[in-house]
Amino acid sequence: MSQQERVYKDPDINMETEHYWEGAKNGKLLMKKCNSCGKTHFYPRAICPVCSSNDTEWYEASGKGKIYSYSIMRRSEIPYVMAYVTLDEGVTMMSNIVESDFDDIKIGKAVEVTFRKTEGNQSLPVFRLSK
Amino acid sequence: MSRMSKAYIAGIYEHPTRKAVDKTIPQLHAEVAIGALKDAGLTKDDVDGYFCDGDAPGLGGMSMAEYMGLNLTYTDTTETGGSSYVVHVGHAVEAIAAGKCNVALITLAGRPRAEGLTTLGARDRGGELPERGFEIPYAPVITNMYGMAAMRHMYEYGTTSEQLAWIKVAASHHAQHNEYAMLRDVVTVEDVINSPMISDPLHRLDCCVISDGGGALIVVSPEIAKSLGDRCVKVLGHGEAVKHLNGGNFDLTYTGAAKSGPIAFAEANVKPADIDYASIYDSFTITVLETIEDLGFCEKGQGGKFVSGGNLISGVGKLPFNTDGGGLCNNHPSNRGGMTKVIEAVRQLRGEAHPKVQVPDCTLALAHGTGGQISTRTGAGTVILGRNDA
User: What positions does the domain ChsH2 C-terminal OB-fold occupy (chain A) (predicted)?
Assistant: First the structure.
């Protein structure tokens, strides 16, 4: 069955993360990379969690990845798919898988980013199975 | 040869209630404290160290110390979720060994059931949580977060729902003998996999109960233990760890037990094969399966095979676990199960478990707590305990 959409809560936005959410409003999935160690980390921080450098930089991710794991929350009024998605950039992020039939969702399947409006009109990155 | 112990567990108490509509949370803390002190043969005036977690009302332990009339020289309010009390045992041992206190009281109490709390709503504890914006909008709840760990373990190792079900089956075999257990009916593998799906692949019977109540522990110095007699239990080793999402680079098929376990075993100078009884945190069946692997009772990925066929049932299998029925069937007070894990391990070492589940000649026991969520940020605490003559 195709998914019914639920209402998404607003994200907390602060000085460290406002750029990420501005990007989402413009349809971009932004990541933070450290200029000192070269690693991307998630969630984005002012201080790199790998090497502690404060020389971190935003860039636009491909928006493509694979499902690392998922769980279909059936006991919710509107069932939904909780997932971890490993991006092509190497980091794994929490998200929801939308649009897709529950039965089609499998670990390892390719997904692509899309966006949903939250209750306060913020844009939230979510994923759907790649066509 | 008798093993050295820097401190002993002298008193235990598990509150008999599972639904506390007519009691406050501070009252429950005080009741479990009095119960454990009585069990030890001590009074509250003997207590000079107090341990609780962030779930206790008030700033740190101060409000509860005032409520109970404690006169303290030492306090520790380490918060690692449901593993806190296992961690507190380790911290109490070190504080006693350092001469900072002599009688440590550890309490847990809560009433989520009376307050009508469920695990369905997103857990939003507010504050300045740095990860919150990147998680709460996606509606993470306890069941779907543990569901993702189970799903990944199945994907990597071929673990099945039937194998996970055996963990619940074993717990139910023990719970039938516990008059206080919430769920006393013996269930089968079919019962578990035919129960409603909550969040794939976890069924209702893969999940623990929600209960009110609590428990308390008394940890004392060797000198005081000597005066209290041979019901005191040795604390031979302790390990703890924190595991998190590591900047987006993580593996959901293991828990913090992979670190806390080896530390505890090394300190106690024993091996997994030496353990006669194990209390393993069981918020969900998958929690037990991953923890058993991480603690070294079997190889990583072989947990499904290990737990099958009743291997966790006392008198039947090689690793009797959670003989009180555990969180899956007996009690998970305040959604935090580490306390009851230590309590049942002490009962086993004293020979005071229910006769139907008592492990014969139980000399060495392990208790493990898992806090937070194994799919995000999780605390781990392992203790290895020995009978008084171990």
Answer: 58-116
pLDDT score, position B236? 98
Q: How far apart are CA B372 and CA B370, in angstroms?
A: 7
In tens, the pLDDT along A54-108 reads 999 999 999 999 999 999 999 999 999 999 999 999 999 999 999 999 999 999 9
> Which parts of B152-288 are beta strand (E)?
197-199, 202-203, 213-220, 233-243, 277-280
| A54 within domain boundaries | yes
ipTM of the shown complex: 0.97
Interchain contact, A93 vs B248, CB within 8 Å: yes
Backbone angles phi, psi at A34, to 5 degrees: -95, 125
Residues B299 and B226 in one domain: no
- Give the per-residue pLDDT at B129: 87
Chain A 39-68, residues with CB within 8 Å of chain B CB atoms: 39-43, 45, 49-50, 68
The DSSP 8-state label assigned to residue B203 in this structure reads E
Reported as a pLDDT band with limits 50, 70 and 90, residue B161 is: very high
pTM over 0.90: yes
Cβ contacts (< 8 Å) between A82 and chain B: which residues?
A: 138-140, 144-145, 147-148, 199
Contact B285, B319 (CB under 8 A): no
Q: Is the pLDDT of residue B122 over 50?
A: no
C-alpha distances (whole Å) from B140 to each of A71, A91, B170 are 10, 19, 29
User: The tokens of B337 are what?
Assistant: 């199960």
Is residue A72 a contact partner of residue A65, using CB atoms and an 8 Å limit?
no
| B272-300 b/e (C-beta count within 10 Å ≥ 16 → b) | beebbbbbbbbbbbbbbbbbbbbbbbbee
Q: What pLDDT is recorded for position B4?
A: 86
Residue B242: φ, ψ to 5°: -125, 130
Number of domains in chain B: 2
CATH number at residue A36: 2.40.50.840
Q: Half-sphere exposure (CA, 13 Å, Cβ side) for A82? A: 31
Q: What is the pLDDT of residue A3?
A: 79
Distance from CA of A131 to the nearest CA of B (A): 23
For the CA atoms of A96, A100, A102, A107, what is the dihedral angle to 10 degrees?
Answer: -70
Range of the domain at B186: 140-210+237-386
A73 with B131: Cβ contact below 8 A: no
What are the tokens at B10? 């002298």
DSSP H or E run through B190: helix B189-193
β-pair type (B277-280, B364-372): parallel
Which letter does DSSP use for residue B58 in this model? S
Q: Pick the closest to residue B47 from B90, B6, B106, B91 (CA basis).
A: B106
Minimum-distance CB partner of B198 among A14, A17, A74: A74
Q: What is the spatial distance between Cα B384 and Cα B346, in angstroms, rounded to a whole number?
A: 11
